[in-house]
Amino acid sequence: QELRPKSLDIKQEELGDMVEKEMASTSEAIEDAVRRIEEMMSQARNKSSGVKLEVNERILNSCTDLMKAIRLLVMTSTNLQKEIVESGRGAATTQEFYAKNSRWTEGLISASKAVGWGATQLVESADRVVLHTGKYEELIVCSHEIAASTAQLVAASKVKAEKSSRNLSRLQECSRNVNEMAANVVASTKSGQEQIEEKDTMDFSGMSLIKLKKEEMETQVKVLELEKRLEGERVRLGELRKQHYALAGAYDAVEDGEAKPAPAPRRGILKKPPLAQKP
């Protein structure tokens, strides 16, 4: 009992209840997301037309398909989780099983929260895109985030599942379906963005030579500024990822009762190996 990880200040009997609550909360978040997308669809038909309506419908339809795939994955994950508990608890109660396997339970809770959060963020991003107050890139990032969080949920469920489990096979199939639907959201978003940008392309036919030259120079300046900004953002992203991995590694080390991992040694200059001595 003293050696059991204490990463959550929760009583043993409450840990099992948290799993069921989080899975139910995730299901509710997905159901709410589906309803909100349907509302956005009807609003888009009333407020837009032509190319914009076509783009909005295609994006929202792909988001709806993704939500349905996530909903099926969560249901299958819940069934697999129940199967794992029933086959592994023996004479113990469900709460005792969750308490005994607290690390696995906490991973399952974290993965479920990530899926629900990703679904909510996707809907909010889609809403902003339809209202022309958001960026298409937000939808693409949210789709990647959902694919990652569902992979986390599958991994957490797979840890204690039997390899021959039918529910595990169904869960893996659902995960592949989610990845496919997330890719469809990315594809529909990119194609829609291209359509809108092509429609809004400026017409330069009426410009004088001097005006064209001025526009060309201003555009070159803007390109250089954007390239510099892009380089800076890439460096920032790399540092954020390093910090993320460092914190995640430290957290795992503390969970296991070990010291934090030491930083990697700096690369030194490679020295030339000594020559062999003559006999």
From TrEMBL:
Chain residue ranges for the region called Disordered: 256-279
Coiled coil: 207-243
Record InterPro entries: I/LWEQ_dom_sf, ILWEQ_dom, Sla2_fam
SMART domains named among the record's database cross-references: ILWEQ
Keyword tags: Coiled coil, Cytoplasm
GO MF entries: actin filament binding; clathrin adaptor activity; clathrin light chain binding; phosphatidylinositol-3,4-bisphosphate binding; phosphatidylinositol-3,5-bisphosphate binding
Signal peptide limits: none
Chain ranges of the I/LWEQ domain: 7-248
Database matches in SUPFAM superfamilies: I/LWEQ domain
GO CC terms of this entry: clathrin-coated vesicle; cortical actin cytoskeleton
Location of this chain's protein in the cell: Cytoplasm
Annotated GO biological process: actin filament organization; clathrin coat assembly; endocytosis
PANTHER family assigned: HUNTINGTIN INTERACTING PROTEIN 1, HUNTINGTIN-INTERACTING PROTEIN 1-RELATED PROTEIN
Entry protein name: HIP1R protein
Source organism of the structure: Pygoscelis papua (Gentoo penguin)
Upper classification of the organism: Eukaryota, Metazoa, Chordata, Craniata, Vertebrata
Gene name of the record: Hip1r
